[in-house]
Amino acid sequence: xxxxxxxxxxxxxxxxxxxxxxxxxxxxxxxxxxxxxxxxxxxxxxxxxxxxxxxxxxxxxxxxxxxxxxxxxxxxxxxxxxxxxxxxxxxxxxxxxxxxxxxxxxxxxxxxxxxxxxxxxxxxxxxxxxxxxxxxxxxxxxxxxxxxxxxxxxxxxxxxxxxxxxxxxxxxxxxxxxxxxxxxxxxxxxxxxxxxxxxxxxxxxxxxxxxxxxxxxxxxxxxxxxxxxxxxxxxxxxxxxxxxxxxxxxxxxxxxxxxxxxxxxxxxxxxxxxxxxxxxxxxxxxxxxxxxxxxxxxxxxxxxxxxxxxxxxxxxxxxxxxxxxxxxxxxxxxxxxxxxxxxxxxxxxxxxxxxxxxxxxxxxxxxxxxxxxxxxxxxxxxxxxxxxxxxxxxxxxxxxxxxxxxxxxxxxxxxxxxxxxxxxxxxxxxxxxxxxxxxxxxxxxxxxxxxxxxxxxxxxxxxxxxxxxxxxxxxxxxxxxxxxxxxxxxxxxxxxxxxxxxxx
Length: 504
Description:
α1 crosses α14 (about 470-490). The protein is built from 15 helices and 26 strands. The chain has about 500 residues and is of the alpha/beta class.
């Protein structure tokens, strides 16, 4: 139905039996599915808790998952799609990003007190989305049946109720207990919420899917609700993950052969923007490993220090865990190190936090790998950035609270534009021997020319890079995802859930 014939677009809510069950990937698939059917669809998640974030064309910050979903919907990302973003800085505290701007650090208890005001902000954002688009795919957070948190929940059923949205419940069979996941979730809910759930998608099935036909029948008979489909496990589609759950508790890596070069990424406690490395993971002639437990780094061609949401804490962790000594030995033997954002800050001589932006005010000694000094201060830098290195051009983004000063060393990149405004600036730092490098730019590996240049600089000139760059490469993956989704899911019944207004 044309936009001018409806006051507010219908919504469809994708909620889950738990965290990391596949809500984001299902919402992404639905965005591309409906977009492929000529429907102006948009994603929405009222509140996201993740250190994996990105920058909109307006230079504002939002959750990475909703940027991915907007790309799948073939529309530009906008902060109304994720009006509230919580970026954890400790076990009990987070930075609050409201409509794209960092406004405060808050404990979980303090945040709950503000929920009513935040719900109004999130609702207004959803209203704007519903007036702009023909359909909104809403994503929930965690489990939709956390009974102790239901009174504070502004993401799952409260938002679905506000939008009068039918609910699809996603369960993860890979983690086991899928029948208990589904039935247990229903049992924890009020009758009105159970009624709102129209059916289920069972995600991450391994093996012969025909063996689960009895399971599907049991679920439908027990719940009197439809199973829209069972989505098999896949490895042939690469979509940015939402949460760092996918890299939790990595084990030590034993490199038995040097035939395929390996890269190590130190898995920091507060790692952020780990999707930076997805393009490297996709390269067939290269292995990439996340490391948490200290081990010998000699088998790795390069070690990467990734972004961090708590630079000083993670810097102390590197020191106390033994990684600092291991890195020093690796560098002394000629190893290559790259730091990105928080990792870049750690590689300098000091990191100062005079205003206590990440915790208690103070100064922490850096790793001393680069001649730079960092001061953490507001406001946060959030830019889409065009850059180059010796003719290799690329596009990325910056999200950081720090300002870093370089002392007597070469910059890493020339910066040509930020948020669409031309500039003549520099970024990062590189040592004279070209073995130690740091940059604030995320997403640099989404540019094949930049990957090729960087691989050449670390002695890997023969690695084949992807044929497509950036959004073109992602677009292919979104089409693969939609095709896979349609193969296994009853999309016609899902289409009917939108009250018939979108039926083709």
